[in-house]
Write a structure and sequence with these properties.
The structure holds two protein chains of two kinds. By secondary structure, chain A is an all-alpha fold. Helix content of chain A is about 75%, strand content about 0%. Chain A has 16 helices and no strands. In chain A, helix 5 (about 75-105) packs antiparallel against helix 13. Chain B is globular, with a radius of gyration of 26 Å. The longest helix of chain B is centred in the N-terminal third of the chain and has 41 residues, at about 1-40. Chain B is of the alpha/beta class. Chain B has two domains: about 45-150 and about 305-370, 3-Layer(aba) Sandwich (D-Maltodextrin-Binding Protein, domain 2), CATH 3.40.190; about 155-300 and about 380-415, 3-Layer(aba) Sandwich (D-Maltodextrin-Binding Protein, domain 2), CATH 3.40.190.10. Chain B has helices at about 1-40, 60-75, 85-95, 110-115, 125, 135-140, 165-170, 180-190, 205-215, 230-245, 255-265, 275-285, 315-330, 330-340, 350-355, 360-370, 380-400, 405-415, and strands spanning about 45-50, 75-80, 105, 140-145, 145, 150, 155-160, 195-200, 265-275, 285-290, 305-310. In chain B, the strands form three sheets. A five-stranded mixed β-sheet of chain B has the order 2-1-3-11-6, sandwiched between helices. A four-stranded mixed β-sheet of chain B has the order 8-9-7-10. A two-stranded antiparallel ribbon of chain B has the order 4-5. In chain B, helix 2 (about 60-75) links the parallel strand 1 (about 45-50) and strand 2 (about 75-80). The chains are: A mainly alpha, B alpha/beta. The interface of A and B includes residues 15, 75, 136 and 159 of A.
């Protein structure tokens, strides 16, 4: 007993460190195998020239940044970059504002508000294949229900999925519809977290509804808004199934985003071309990483403690 | 306290060690698993057969004919049906692990990809007799003068028409001999209040497949996408869509969706394949060959799979594999198979036998005899790139974002 009390501090600390590593080891191994290794493989794919024969005999000459140069020089790069930016930006803008509006509406707790809120979740819960197919049917140029309404209203037929001008707008509408529930749920819980006495104090001071919203709700909602926007951004960057089902990247690249382009390069034709696909994929990861870093900086500024 | 830490450390350490050993054992298991399975298939009796017909199980006629051919060769067959779109990658992965199937049935444009990857044997290596297979169908499997497989059958495209709609519009189908007469017929049909023609111009291989009869029908060549003849073929489709003879939805139609449009009964014509002939017969629709630009039948692309024999470590297996393939493509067996799969046989004798069994196949046999293979003319692995540019050009022209001439010029430049 007394012998244990006089154990030198260094030995206890070393044992403690070993134990700590032993407990972290499973997580580290998991991260290495499922995150670091695929990422390293992807980077390797993009700096080598892979052909079909490389599958079999493993020869893939190292070409440095040639694949990236080819991707930048490709005529699809400009439209894909623009479409990705527009798709992500407009999606987040509308998803967030409509989600926030609905959340503010539901905070009032009227009868059946719980049921209605649950029903609003349906777009998010449906498999993307179902949503994409349903929207494709509705937006069909000749037999879709949306065009029937437009013709009845006298606006005439719009080629939603087959016209270069409208294809991006069509997939945007579908994506916004799918993303609203996610924003609604998170912002609603954020709103519930704001104490009511703040609002009461503001009413006593003579603030009207709009001022309360701008001066109290939005600032107090900032941490929740930040995470919602970040998650939405990263998710929307990767959206593939919806666009592929509806327009397959649109007539002549008009709804092609980086995710669609990467898939088309790798699997869209009879001859898989993995190296440029990996290069485009890595560019996508880079953009998502930049968004993540911006979020971390914003969060550290919001939360100085 | 230190006893607690020691015990915890021992437990965790032991767990990690066990996990490491298990991982090693598993990886060792998988690699030895490969060799043992390779070893067991080298053992007398079991040959592996991969095909893209997952809809046929062990009780189907297809599986039975494979078993009977295996029995005549004195071995048993283990057959696996996979989805056709994943079969190429599966075959490549298996080739990488030296674990290829003994017989591989793949879609014909993929044969050149697998051959260039170096996983298929030539007829010189496997001693397979090609027999009287028509050259135009066989060319999908011929690269640099070497033959890498034989077709199990072929299907192709033709022009289905709805006799009721044509009668109501006063159009005689016998008068449709070239593009001008076809466009005139479409004009008459739309003037009578019906819809003209439906096809698939989607931005995938299906779109190229459907456009090729018109492309080849104008006399154009896949090595020169921007020739005047090629532009005229794309102009034909663009004018149809602009004038409303073909609906705008063709830009997003698959062949199946296009067929569903035709089945509404309002369309006069549909461009579709052999696989719909039973459905068409049920509806009372008939078929004529697709017209060429100035007359005659346009060469349509061939669909259908090839029987190939992948490279094995044990080359003595090729003899048995060849025997099984020869049995499957023998006239009697192949006619039965092709009737089940809705294919036209590839050999002259087999075609004659099919015709004598079912005279309604005549337009399809004629169409297959003038058909062309997409990867033929030694295009091989260049075809996928050309095809992708071709469907992009079609999409651009039909959606109005470029003129047919500009779209095809850009396509040819991208292929270079």
């Amino acid at each position: 007993m007394t012998a244990q009390l006089s154990v030198p501090a260094r030995r206890i600390r070393r044992r403690g460190t070993w134990t700590a590593w032993a407990f972290i080891a499973p997580v580290v191994i998991y991260l290495l195998v499922f995150y670091a290794y695929p990422l390293a493989r992807n980077v390797e794919l993009s700096v080598r020239a892979y052909t079909v024969r490389s599958f079999i005999d493993g020869t893939a000459p190292f070409v440095g940044f040639a694949n990236y140069r080819a991707v930048f020089a490709n005529p699809t790069f400009g439209p894909a970059l623009l479409n990705t930016g527009l798709f992500v930006g407009v999606s987040i803008l509308f998803q967030f504002t409509i989600g926030l509006a609905l959340a503010v509406f539901f905070v009032r707790h009227f009868p059946l508000s719980g049921t209605l809120r649950a029903l609003f979740l349906v777009p998010w819960l449906l498999p993307l294949l179902v949503s994409g197919s349903a929207w494709s049917w509705m937006l069909n140029s000749d037999s879709g229900i949306v065009n029937s309404f437009l013709e009845a209203a006298g606006i005439g037929q719009i080629n939603w999925l087959t016209s270069p001008q409208w294809s991006l707008i069509a997939v945007l509408i579908a994506n916004i519809w799918i993303g609203i529930p996610f924003n609604l749920v998170i912002l609603y819980s954020g709103l519930e977290g704001i104490p009511l006495d703040v609002y009461e104090a503001a009413s006593i001071d003579g603030a009207n509804g709009w001022q309360k919203f701008l001066r109290i709700t939005l600032p107090l909602l900032r941490p929740v808004s930040a995470i919602t926007v970040l998650l939405g951004l990263v998710y929307t960057l990767k959206v593939f199934d919806l666009i592929w089902i509806m327009t397959r990247g649109g007539p002549a690249d008009s709804s092609t985003t980086f995710a669609i382009w990467a898939y088309r390069l790798g699997f869209g034709s009879l001859l898989p071309d993995f190296s440029p696909a990996a290069a485009v994929g890595n560019l996508l990861i880079l953009v998502a990483l930049i968004f993540g870093l911006i979020y971390i900086r914003t969060q550290s500024r919001l939360d100085p403690a | 306290m230190s006893v607690e830490i020691k015990r915890k450390f021992k437990v965790v350490g032991a767990a990690l060690l066990a996990a490491g050993v298990a991982a090693n054992a598993l990886s060792g298991c998988s690699s030895s698993g490969t060799t043992t399975s390779g070893g067991s298939s080298a053992a007398q009796g079991t040959y592996t057969f991969w095909d893209p017909y997952p809809q046929y199980d062990e009780t189907s006629a297809w599986a039975k004919v494979i078993d009977s051919c295996a029995a005549t060769a004195g071995v048993t067959i283990k057959r696996s049906g996979y989805d056709t779109s994943g079969l190429t990658n599966k075959a490549l992965l298996a080739g990488q692990q030296n674990n290829s199937a003994d017989i591989l049935l793949v879609d014909n444009p993929v044969v050149s990809t697998l051959a260039s990857a170096g996983i298929l044997t030539t007829t010189d290596q496997n001693k397979l007799a090609v027999g009287d297979v028509a050259t135009n169908i066989l060319s999908a499997g011929v690269i640099d003068g070497k033959t890498y497989g034989v077709p199990i059958g072929a299907n192709t495209l033709a022009l289905y028409y709805n006799p009721k709609v044509l009668k109501a519009a006063g159009v005689d189908v016998a008068s449709i001999t070239d593009w001008t007469s076809l466009t005139a017929a479409l004009q008459k049909v739309t003037a009578a209040g019906h819809k003209g023609i439906t096809f698939s111009a989607i931005g995938t291989e299906e779109g190229s497949f459907q456009f090729l009869p018109w492309f080849w029908g104008s006399g154009a060549d896949l090595t020169k996408l921007d020739s005047d003849k090629a532009v005229s073929s794309l102009q034909l489709w663009t004018d149809w869509v602009k004038k409303g003879y073909a609906p705008n939805s063709v830009i997003n139609n698959t062949q199946t969706t296009s067929w569903q449009e035709f089945q509404t009964g309002d369309f006069a014509f549909a461009e579709n394949g052999t696989w719909q002939k039973a459905d068409a017969a049920k509806m009372g629709d008939q078929v004529v060959p697709l017209p060429g630009a100035t007359g005659g039948s346009a060469p349509a692309p061939t669909g259908g799979e090839f029987l190939t024999i992948p490279i094995q470590k044990d080359t003595s297996r090729y003899a048995v594999s060849s025997k099984i393939v020869a049995c499957l493509t023998s006239t009697e067996n192949v006619v039965k198979t092709d009737n089940t799969l809705n294919y036209i046989s590839a050999g002259k004798d087999a075609q004659a036998a099919q015709l004598s069994g079912d005279a309604t196949l005549k337009p399809w046999v004629d169409a297959v005899q003038v058909a062309k293979a997409r990867t033929g003319d030694n295009l091989g692995t260049k075809y996928p790139k050309i095809s992708e540019q071709l469907w992009t050009a079609v999409q651009k022209a039909l959606s109005g974002s470029a003129s047919p001439a500009d779209a095809l010029k850009a396509a040819q430049a991208a292929v270079k």
